[in-house]
Every structure is written in C-alpha cells, then in structure tokens.
Amino acid sequence: MTAPSLVVLPDAGAVAARGAELSAEEIRAAVATRGRCALAVSGGRTPWIMFSRLADEQLPWDDVVIYQVDERVAAEGDPERNLTHLLRSLPADAAARVLPMPVVAEDLEQAAAEYAASLPERLDLVHLGLGADGHTASLVPGDPVLDVADRDVAVTRPYQGRRRMTITFPALARARRILWVVTGEDKAGALQQLRAGDRSIPAGRVPAENAIVLADAAAARAQREEGL
Fold it and tell me: Confidence class of residue 221 from pLDDT cuts 50, 70 and 90?
C-alpha cells in the first residue's frame, strides 16, 4: 500500500507558505513541459491564504487555467461560494483564466456535463482539502456521487444545507499531481485514515502515488504518535 508523502509544518501559516511554493513549482514545470497549467482548486481558509501568497512568486499566469474542484449551489457572490473567496485571494496581477463551476444553471446535471467537457484529459495540479468526516472535494460519506465512474463532474445531494457540484474520483485519479492541505486538530483522525489508504472514507479512495500532504502539527499529531 502506497501512502501519500507527508510534510509536517508547525502551523497553518507555514502550510500555506509551503503550499504556495510547491504550487509555483508545479505551475512552472507544467508550463515549461506542456505550454500550459491546468490547476484545480478547492475552498478553505488555509488554501485561500496559500493562493494569496502566490503574489510573491513570478509565475506565467497567462498560461494558467484555474478550475474549481467543487462548489456550493448558491448565487453569484454568495459568501459560501468557494469562487467568491478564490477571486479575492488570487494575486491582483494574476492573469490566469478562471473557469467557475456553473452552479447557477437551471439544469445542474447538464451544467455538470458541460463543465466536465471543459476539463483537460489530465489536470496538472489539484488542490484538495480534508474534512473531519473524511470527505474531500464534495465527495462526502454516503453520497451517490462516490460511485460515479463515467463522469468527471457530478452534482451531490444536500450536504450541510447545500447541494454541491464536484469533480469525481475518475478525474482525480488522472491528475498529474495532487496537493493535500490539511490543518487543525479535528483533522487528525481523517489524516491518519487518508495515509492508511482507508477506503471507508472518501479521501482514502484518491490515488496516493502522485500526492503530497502538507499538514500542520495539530493535524499530524496521530501520525507522529504512531510513527507513520
């Protein structure tokens, strides 16, 4: 069993800083190799700090396309939308093309199919977070989208009061690189399951071969105690 590599950092700020460095490296490498970088991003406070720190990096933004990993079905500008915070956190001079998930469409299933068609065959870099319940993206325990094998984007049942649009496991499995950002003591148990490849949680079903986990000391507590 392959576990994703783990880097433990002192706190969420250090995780955000290292995440920005690694993201910059992957963006540059993708553009140098393939002429563009397809980057898919999730929500969460630490990732938004991470993206804001990309302002310190000289990046070929014109050759970057940013996709969403998942999004709540909510109105434009809603504070619960990941897009709202992503646009605020990106550097002011970032000329990347951002392709939002079409969660305001009347026909969400058709919109999901159209968004899937906009994805490249392989995403170059996917940022993922980890929920205390083991969910990642909007792939949550017990939702039927966990079993979707023929679509790269699907629409979930309501979770924490909102339906979601999410990238599915097949698209994640083809990604060239996955960057997990995990912070907070409440994530310690789920992180342990993730690194053990525990398929009883959604996160444990994401392939580990091309993945790296950045975790703060609080989230990684169980890993250190058990010597993982």
Answer: confident
